[in-house]
Amino acid sequence: MILVDHSPWMIRFLESYFRSEPRVEVLLNDGQSLPAAMRDNSLDVFFAAGTLVCLKLGIIYLYARDIARVLKPGGVAILDYIDPTTHLGWSHMMSEAQKLGYVYTYHAGHVLDHVFETVGCDLVERIPVEKSTYLVVRKRG
Questions:
Q1: Which residues contact 19 (CB under 8 A, 6 or more apart)?
Q2: Which helix (H) or strand (E) holds 28?
Q3: 9 CB-contact burial (10 Å; exposed 0-12 / middle 13-18 / buried 19+)
Q4: What is the C-alpha separation between 80 and 71, in angstroms, rounded?
Q5: Which of 46, 49, 97, 136 is the most interior residue, by most CB within 10 Å?
Q6: How many domains does the chain have?
């Protein structure tokens, strides 16, 4: 398992937490891309939780490009986001705007579909879970 974060504090925490697990690798990134140390076509599954909800669309595109780079053909990526076109996503935005409007970003599913299609992935499904929607895409090939 490869764990990636842009926070040096989180990297130190993860390294300490998983120090006795030799199958876990922890990598620091720049907050805009995956580390170059992640090999092309090397992952079967990529999972990110709580990442897209705080990124602007241009940065999501940069990550999507890297996700497609590191996934094996046929590999799957699962990412959550908050979709303002859903009832719960819209309600979240309306209720949290005053105190957390500077934290969350909201993206319509069709826009994220287009981003991932552009980098060579196809939509598998969307799974709504409370305020979040989990996007599941598969790398072509």
A1: none
A2: strand 25-28
A3: exposed
A4: 18
A5: 46
A6: 2
CATH of residue 69: 3.40.50.150
Residue whose token pair is 């599941």? 136
Residues of 108-118 as b/e, b for ≥16 C-beta within 10 angstroms?
ebeebbebbee
Q: For residues 106 and 108, what is the distance between their CA atoms, to the nearest angstrom? A: 7
CA–CA separation, 65 and 14 (whole Å): 25
Same domain for 100 and 57, yes or no, is yes
User: Are β-strands 43-48 and 25-28 bridged in parallel, bridged antiparallel, or unpaired?
Assistant: unpaired
For residue range 17-54, what is the model confidence (pLDDT) as tens digits? 999 999 999 999 999 999 999 999 999 999 999 999 99
User: Cα(49)–Cα(36) distance, rounded to whole angstroms?
Assistant: 21
4 and 54, same domain (yes or no): no
Look up the domain containing 7 and give its range: 1-30
Q: What predicted TM-score, i.e. pTM, was given to this entire model?
A: 0.91
CB contact at 8 A, 110 and 133: no
pLDDT tens for 42-90 read: 999 999 999 999 999 999 999 999 999 999 999 999 999 999 999 999 9
